[in-house]
Write a structure and sequence with these properties.
By secondary structure, the protein is of the alpha+beta class. It has one domain. It contains 2 helices and 9 strands; from the N terminus they run αβββββββαββ. Strands 1-2-3-6-7-8-9-4-5 form a 9-stranded antiparallel β-sheet, with no helix packed on it. The radius of gyration is 20 Å and the shape is globular.
Length: 168
């Protein structure tokens, strides 16, 4: 009877602990941007007092353009992204940031965690194009993707890039 009671106590403690972990909000929750022809799903990190570009996100290295799972973008119609035609479909979206420009990358390999295995799949790139970096006058606390009629804008910290996108 003592053993059964002790086992029950251990089980209740484990279940309570797991329930509390499940209720803990993610530091970088999943965020979504949707338009008539484009959907974007990304992990939305915050600055939280950190130096972002050049430190947390190193220059010259492939970045998932978000947090946790790699960012994915879906085009429901053929598009032109930064001057390059792209077919309909879902792609993993990466960037290689630098101080003055980012190299944007669309890759056919879905389901990637971060950019850790990008090198194994870089042969599946369908687009690599440079876009200029713009400085923001104030800090954008959360990584944000915005779609307008002809532009996909990514802003975080004091950095922003505007990627030309047109629906064909």
């Amino acid at each position: 009877m003592k053993h059964a009671l002790a086992l029950l106590l251990v089980l209740v403690t484990c279940i309570t602990s797991q329930a509390q972990e499940l209720q803990t909000p993610l530091l970088s929750p999943r965020a979504y941007v949707k338009s008539k022809h484009i959907d974007i799903s990304y992990g939305q990190p915050s600055v939280r007092g950190r130096v972002i570009f050049g430190e947390l996100v190193p220059y010259g290295q492939v970045w998932r353009a978000g947090a946790n799972e790699a960012t994915e973008i879906t085009f429901r119609r053929k598009v032109t992204v930064a001057g390059v035609p792209v077919d309909t479909g879902t792609y993993t979206f990466f960037v290689i940031p630098a101080e003055k420009e980012w190299l944007i990358i669309l890759n056919k390999q879905l389901g990637q965690w971060g950019a850790y295995e990008y090198d194994k799949h870089k042969d599946k790139d369908v687009l690599k194009a440079p876009v200029p970096v713009q400085s923001l006058s104030s800090v954008q606390e959360k990584l944000t993707y915005k779609l307008s009629k002809k532009t996909l804008t990514i802003s975080w910290d004091k950095t922003s890039v505007a990627i030309p996108v047109s629906i064909n």
